[in-house]
Write a structure and sequence with these properties.
The complex is a heterodimer of chains A (about 110) and B (about 110). With about 110 residues, chain A is mainly β. In chain A, about 0% of the residues lie in helices and about 55% in strands. Chain B has about 110 residues and is an all-beta fold. Classes of the chains: A mainly beta (about 110), B mainly beta (about 110).
Chain lengths: ~110, ~110
């Protein structure tokens, strides 16, 4: 069975600073993918970044980077230079080879303070 | 760039009624997923289709059914609606040889 754990229900960050959102996962599959999605208050689910289990380099997409530590089974999202528009719920998710549907964590609500 | 389209965006139904939600995936995407997100919850996988065939099934109630049509759009049919079915229903699409799943804006279903 697959499990995603996000232990931070809420986080605050000052505008222009960096913030790390934690995510740990558990799976017995060797081939899997890790995702981060942003859900603003309007409700849509926005894809941010993807990391494959065999990728040796950490994924980066603009201000987002994924700190992938395979031995620790962690896939933390780092947002640099936070902006007010980054205030949202952030979900970590995982898929395993074959099924490919996503298993989500419970999310972290990020609030950016001006 | 084209995104996933879902209709309707909002739907209000009475208990025991039926509802049909529609999803139009990103062009050339061959895989469609349906997720249900209850209030304050994380999304839960319901069902998926690849090339018009059901490929995987999650926590979809027997009262719900879904299919994918020849033009790749998908419909989620929900019958005997219950209050607990009130949720945000997402469709997501993916190109099978790629990993990213892109979500539509969701259909917010309210059952009264």
């Amino acid at each position: 069975a697959q499990k995603i754990t996000q232990t931070q229900p809420g986080m605050f960050v000052q505008e222009k600073e960096a913030v790390t959102l934690d995510c740990t996962y558990d799976t017995s599959d060797q081939s899997y993918g890790l995702f981060w999605y942003k859900q603003p208050s309007s409700g849509e689910m926005i894809f941010l970044i993807y990391q494959g289990s065999y990728d040796e380099q950490n994924a980066t997409e603009g201000r987002y980077s994924l700190n992938f530590q395979k031995a620790r089974k962690s896939a933390n999202l780092v947002i640099s230079a936070s902006q007010l528009g980054d205030s949202a719920m952030y979900f970590c998710a995982m898929s395993v080879s074959g099924a490919n549907n996503l298993f989500f964590g419970t999310g972290t609500r990020l609030t950016v303070i001006p | 760039a084209a995104g996933v389209i879902q209709s309707p965006r909002h739907l209000i139904k009475e208990k025991r009624e039926t509802a049909t939600l529609k999803c139009y995936p990103i062009p050339r995407h061959d895989t469609v997923y349906w997720y249900q997100q209850g209030p304050g919850q994380d999304p839960q996988f319901l069902i998926s289709f690849y090339e018009k065939m059901q490929s995987d099934k999650g926590s979809i109630p027997d009262r719900f059914s879904a299919q994918q049509f020849s033009d790749y759009h998908s419909e989620l049919n929900m019958s005997s609606l219950e209050l607990g079915d009130s949720a945000l229903y997402f469709c997501a699409s993916r190109l099978k040889r790629k990993n990213e799943q892109f979500f539509g804006p969701g259909t917010r279903l309210t059952v009264l």
